[in-house]
Fold this sequence. Notes:
Blueprint: H1 2-63, H2 72-105, H3 111-115, H4 120-139, H5 142-149, H6 152-164, H7 171-190, H8 197-219, H9 226-229, H10 233-259
Helix pairs in contact: 1-4, 2-4, 2-10, 4-8, 4-10, 5-7, 5-8, 6-8
Amino acid sequence: DRDDNTGSLHEVSSVWIKLAKTNAAVFVKTSAAVFLMQIGNIMAWYWTNGMNGISMQHYAEKVNDPTHMSSAYIRFFSTMALTGVVTCLQLLLGALIGRILLLGMNKSISWHHITSTHSAPLSGLHALGSIATNLGFMYGKASLVQVIKLLEPFETLLLSQIFFREGKCTIGIVSSMLVVVGAAMSLMKLQSTPPHPLSILFAILSGLTLSCRNVLQRKHHNDDSPIVQNWSKLEKSVVQFTQLSFFSGLWTGGVAIVLY
């Protein structure tokens, strides 16, 4: 009987070991896939954002041509209105892409589920940050605007510490922030002509508003519904992206109409 029990224990142990190894292998593969997807998304974001900045600069050369309009006042508001239209189309395109992705991931997620947890402050901040980013590209070089926007993670950390007592400001973080500030100052000195003040102003405004959005976004959760609790983390992220893009597009469209 003792030998039988020992044999049974060995069999159970071997089964558990095999199961643990299988789970570990699946976890490693899943983690690697998620990591590669994140890296791919980051690279795609940087590439498309850079191309957007370059395209906006070519567009700005035509819009800001002094020969088109005699009044600088009219040129300024026309630039803002046109930028609002471009930003609106970008955001609504993002909402469309997000909706298509959700249909492929989980067809049970309806448009009502996407819009029911809408937060006006979040979409307003996202709209303002998006318009400010494109306005920064309209008035200055994409390289300078992008470097200034690199301060956004530090601004998010600072706002989280101020409002929610989250995060710690370490020496490494301060050192990284100083490097970004130094890079921005170096780019300003390397330019043949001084950067337009509005470009720097809009880049800073973009970073501040999007940092506020990031902080509020983490606090804005509505997981009480059983349906939402069954969604994966990726599905929740795409839902939030689609929601923000859609309502921010409406905000920017409204701003463009008022400015026109």
